[in-house]
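We give this protein:

***
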Amino acid sequence: MLILGIDTATPQVGCAIGGHEGVLAAFQSAKGKRHAETLVPAIQFLSQKTGIELSEIGAVAVDVGPGLFTGLRVGVATAKAMASALRVPMVGVVSLDLLAFEVRWTTRRIVSVVDARRGEVFYAFYRQVPGGVQRLSEMRCGTPEELCSEIQATGEEVLAVGDGALRYRTALTDLIRVEVEDAGLAFPSPAALVQLAHARALREEFVKPWDLQPVYLRKPDAEINWQIGPGR
């Protein structure tokens, strides 16, 4: 089964195509934050370069967040539209899982950290297991200080990964036994998305397009600003 992976939950726009042969092609761009303008041409580019018609796609996978509201909405809406048009099932994968999967080689506890803006981060803890990683905590939205407190409470060596970890690198590396991964792994990988989605597809862990829901963890900024505006 061929899978199309779509990832726009962070400042990066990414897509990939792959299946049982592995990842056949991938596209990533984190410049300009033009998610809506970049995504569909990128998918068409992958189709042309691989010689794979979209009609050959057997499932659509998408990063469901948590992440930045606008980008996440673009990716999920596009993925749902394509899955419906192609009449194929979907696989939703959490952005924090994707970040942790990229450092599954480490024996340390992993914390995936996505920059949530407004002085907050989305994060969750993981550990290595055969074939991948296992999430150890709920996904949370909190301040860098709250994240640092939770890291200290583990009493373990920790590897932090993601653009949120890079933004608050100083606070994290001030802690004992914490290392921050480099910028090459700052954003979820569309290639990793296809890999994880393919494993779930083999287990038939699909969802219908109308049942797939993004993970926000907090209200959109526009809604928050409306509620705290003058006179409210």
User: Anything to note?
Assistant: Residues 69 and 137 are 23 Å apart (CA to CA). The chain has a mean pLDDT of 93. The longest strand covers residues 120-129. The chain is about 35% helix and 30% strand.
